[in-house]
Amino acid sequence: MTRIAFRLLLLAASAGLAACASRPPVTTGSITPATAAERHPFVLSDSPRSLDVFVTGTGHIDPRQADDVDAFLTEYRRYGRGVLVLEVPRGSQVPGGAVERTLERVRGRALTWGVGRREIVVAPYPVANVAVSAPLRLSFQRMQAKVAGDCGLWPQDLGFSDPALNARNENYWNFGCATRSNIASQVADPVDLVRGRQEGRIDSVTRTQNLTDLRTGKDPSTTWKQDGRASVKNQVGQ
């Protein structure tokens, strides 16, 4: 083989290797989010938490709403950020004295639950429709979980207008959004959606008894008889 032919062969091989190296990486699989968790992921963000307290009678808080206020104040003390805002309706058909007395009772309950006076901000809000009952509005900011986007979006037709989409046999875009949104709104601690909790303390007495039963060839499970005379508490205590 002459030198010219050898050089041409090396040049052709180098060109082939360069062509292979310049190819973009090949991606396999679906390029769109395939699962509901990928399409509608959970995100944590600060958003307002509110409670409406309706004025009843001459300005007292009935037991039903008192429980709601106490639970709301407990949540504020545990998760709230910033101040507790008490918005008072102005221009409604409710007498001003009843509104003020309800406000003072709500403020008193907040102080009883350990909310500082400087943490309470009272502000008026206009009533658009005087024919509708206007409540006192309690609100604060806290970290809450939600889905990243809005539910109810339909970027593709569910019918047969797009044969290529139907051939992929994938879930429609809005699938699972409402379910995940409901889960996010019901979870007590949003951090639980990000990571699991630390392992709690074990019951060393029960574990030791179970290991002893296994070593001696006994069944470590709890004996339960549905005879109407035994209770779960008595059986677990054995």
From TrEMBL:
Keywords per UniProt: Signal
Pfam families linked to this entry: Pilus_CpaD (PF09476)
Composition bias type Polar residues, residue spans: 213-225
Recorded superkingdom: Bacteria
Region of interest called Disordered, as start-end residue ranges on this chain: 213-238
InterPro entries linked: Pilus_biogenesis_CpaD-related, Pilus_CpaD
Signal sequence range: 1-18
Protein name: Pilus assembly protein CpaD
Organism (species): Methylobacterium aquaticum
Lineage summary: Bacteria, Pseudomonadati, Pseudomonadota, Alphaproteobacteria, Hyphomicrobiales
